[in-house]
Amino acid sequence: MAGSSAKAVYTAIATNSVITITKLTAFGFTGSGAMLSEGIHSLADVGNQSLLALGIQKAKKEADEDHPYGYGRDAFVWAMISAVGIFFLGCGFTLYHGASALWDHLNGNSHPLESINVAVGVLIFSVVLESWTLWIAVREVRKSADAAGMTFKEYTTDGADPMAVAVLLEDAAAVLGVLIVLVCIGLYVLTGNPIFDAIGSLVIALLLGCVAIFLVSKNRSALLGRTVTQSKQEAVISVLEADPVVEHIHDVKATVMSAETFRFKAEVDFDGEEIARRALIDQDLTKISEDVAGSPEALERYLLGFGEHIVEALGDEIDRIEARIRAEVPEAKHVDLEAD
Question: Which band of pLDDT confidence, cut at 50, 70 and 90, is reported for residue 4?
Fold first, then answer.
């Protein structure tokens, strides 16, 4: 999934960099507030997607003494910062500019738009590039959703990877934003009323605000330790239930650690008879019975030693089961089983 995120993020950075330059150039020709809003929107996308790229790299750091479970959640931190950037830079600035333009119009200080043909050409160019980037983001999110055993909608709302979803929503907002500007310019051409340009800025601000709030909520949930999908939990539980030394499973907790891994913790009732049976396989019971026959002291020494052997056997069984879980469910990178 990380590879899918990286491809979507880097494609979006390159595309939005080109689009930002063209939109701001078009604003210089037209003086359109909606075009400026779209230019700021694309510039904010470049900055925010650069933060996502930084988060992808940070999350790759290996575990160390300070962070024994690794740095996977660092991706959620940078995705959160990116979402906040969308809200304050994208939504905030666009809202301010749209409100100012509307105020100027209401006070009779609005100015007619110029070079409409330039603006339309730039917007058509932008919507083509934005649609291509959106298509790549949709494709990568669909791949991740299929790998996670989720529908596209489920992965967008509940998936563990915030990066590709953030790019998906930002690109969708960008395409919709360009279409909004095209409609507003069309209404201006038809009516000659520049108020539609200010309204376009306000609608784009509202759109960016909704995207930002959704992404903030999604990443907050991940940072707090969101539970993994039911299918992932069931995959691990099925491994446990199929093992002959496991009787019952209690207090299951499975939380997302990164876009690709999760931690699984559970309390397990082990079958003492089965573990003892396995521990006795390498024991010579005939010799043992002869050694302890008629000697309480010898019996006590044997039982004390066998008790230590049972504890070691239980530890070996736990290690074996944890290794089996990690082999069959690779995303379960951290598995903690406690004997109940």
Answer: low
